[in-house]
Amino acid sequence: MMAPVNRSLGLVALSLLVVAALSITLIPAGTSWDLRPGSPLGQTLGILAGLVLLGALRYPFVRRTARPAHDKPKAQRLHGLIGSIGVSFALVHSQASLREWSALVLLAALGLLVSGLYGRLVSPRRVAGRFGAGALPYLAVSSPNPWAGDEPRRRLREKRRILGLLGTETGEAQFVLRLEHWLRHPQLAWSYRRLAKWEHAMHARQPESAVAQMALAERLWRRGHLVLALLFVAGLAAHLVTVLFFAGYVADGREVYWWHFAG
């Protein structure tokens, strides 16, 4: 059963996309509601889209602050909401055109929306179904035991020792490296992250582990979301520079009808 807040977020995102699509199809170019990308209204929507989507980048920082139980749920909802608004603005600004290279920025934004909604609405249900009532209670342990031996034990002891040095009262199962840890103890934070990644990789190689039993989409969607975010930021920066400072090159012989810095 999907949580009401997740259902509401999905409906809001879908409604915004429908409104954006109707705006593109029902408002013709050249009217008093000129929505061409470079018109005053279209360019304003593009600026708003960029600012709103960049504002969504606040979420990763909130995840790493000191009050996760209080801030994270609100930040998640806000992240999804403003991301949906930003993508809708970007869709109207671009007029859904895929003829220019800047369409790659739009595709990255749409990919962010799709992957984000998947991670928020679909993935939790799939994971809960796999490890909830439908999970197998007992599975065979690999032989030989990969955790046996001095080296794995030494690494696990070192990981627990560093956890204590980081000055947290949170148990290992609930501990997450936060910005304060990186600022106060950067070397310890790096060592803990390295050992945690090693432990995660060890689990992933064992067929009976929870990590290995997760579907590929559940293991990779967040990584893909981050890659798309980086591509979007890089593409947005390139789009702004070319449109504002190299308008003639972008127009390629056509009318430069948008606001830009005259060269």
Q: Which features does this protein show?
A:
0% strand, mainly alpha, 2 domains, elongated, 69% helix, 263 residues
Structure, explained:
With 263 residues, the protein is an all-alpha fold. The protein folds into two domains: 4-132 and 215-251, no CATH class; 150-207, no CATH class. Helices cover 69% and strands 0% of the residues. The longest helix has 30 residues, at 216-245. The chain is elongated and about 75 Å long. It starts with a helix and ends in a 12-residue tail after the last helix. 16% of the residues are buried. The model has no long low-confidence stretch (mean pLDDT 81).
- The number of helical elements comes to 11
Our count of domains comes out at 2
Q: Helicity level, as a percent range?
A: 55-70%
Structural class: mainly alpha
- Hey, roughly how much beta strand do the residues contain? under 5%
Radius of gyration: 23 Å
Strand count, sense and closure of the main sheet? none
H/E element order: HHHHHHHHHHH
User: How many β strands by DSSP?
Assistant: 0
Entry summary:
The protein has eleven helices and no strands. It is mostly helical. 16% of the residues are buried.
SSE layout:
Elements: H1 4-26, H2 40-55, H3 58-63, H4 68-94, H5 103-131, H6 150-165, H7 179-184, H8 186-204, H9 210-213, H10 216-245, H11 247-251
